[in-house]
């Protein structure tokens, strides 16, 4: 490309998209690069989708501050853009005397993190709140503001608003090398060269690799695989809130959580790997989860499993978020962003803008910003197109259900191809509509969805529902 951008952001996950969106609010030309063919196709797509209060973060860290700020920023953003959120609350369950004794310290930690609503409860109240919990719980800690959210829609909303603000989205651009050319940096990518005056590295699992291309050796990313079981919607009455274990230094452990799509999650595992592409599930991992589930909630294991999946978290040997600006190289590292990046992403964008401004990039706010996009609803707690009689009357394609497990309509699939960032393949279509994500996993609807994919959602709708002019 002949253009030299003011800023190039590497990584179109939640954090990178949030940074690009924020910087596009200034008089800057911004490029958003990703190695894959769609936004949110890496770490951001596969997590437990919890909007965290930050109650259990390490007090005084950058992560603690940005998660706390991000919770409020994302909550507000979700309301304005239609990202589905359910305020379920959470219950931290103590199963041993040691865990029970740890609850007062966790409550104090929450207060040090600025969250004062936790409450220690006894065994009887634990079972009153979660009647189907397994035997042996001794007490718990309530966290009333923990919530569930759609991580797919969050990523897509941030990337879409970035594009609407003028960001140039460059997919299939894996950064292979960098060259300092004095007033700019040349990024040599798998899709050609991209030039920028400033570069922001939000590459997730690859952030340490990119950092070394800029001459640093500050941290190492270890891919940590988290496997999860997804239970059928019939299991949802068993779980109306997030059920958390007492956290350890290894992580937050295995949880049970409802999803905004009406399912129930059990997981994740935490297995450090060397392969940064290994998102396959394992027999060992699934056996581990079933063993945990038998103790946590035996009734859940009697329900049907809809799907299994695994995500890779960017675990780091650095104990905190690593966000630093190198003014000499006009480069910002955004590394070590763990699963809390879903919640903190917008706050990270604000922080990066402040750093890059302090380092010398002129930030002049724009006065012509478009309104944020309103995203298609994927949540069961809100009105879906197949339920909306007025919408169907205006366009019958919203009444033609294609994926019956998830109640996805032809109109919704068509709309994805008319959006600013259309899906590049079936996996992207799944994340935008829920098509093929249900109990049959595409066995029933796969052929029809494939046809709509081939025609970009157009001709099939027209054939089934010809226009009034055609009917005459």
Automatic annotation (TrEMBL):
It comes from the Bacteria. InterPro entries: BFD-like_2Fe2S-bd_dom, BFD-like_2Fe2S-bd_dom_sf, FAD-dep_OxRdtase, FAD/NAD-bd_sf, G3P_Oxidase/Oxidoreductase. Residues 401-454 form the BFD-like [2Fe-2S]-binding domain. CDD domains: GlpA-like_Fer2_BFD-like. Transmembrane segments: none annotated. SUPFAM superfamilies: FAD-linked reductases, C-terminal domain, FAD/NAD(P)-binding domain. Residues 6-355 form the FAD dependent oxidoreductase domain. It holds the Pfam family DAO. This is Oxidoreductase, FAD-binding protein. The lineage of its organism: Bacteria, Bacillati, Actinomycetota, Actinomycetes, Streptosporangiales.
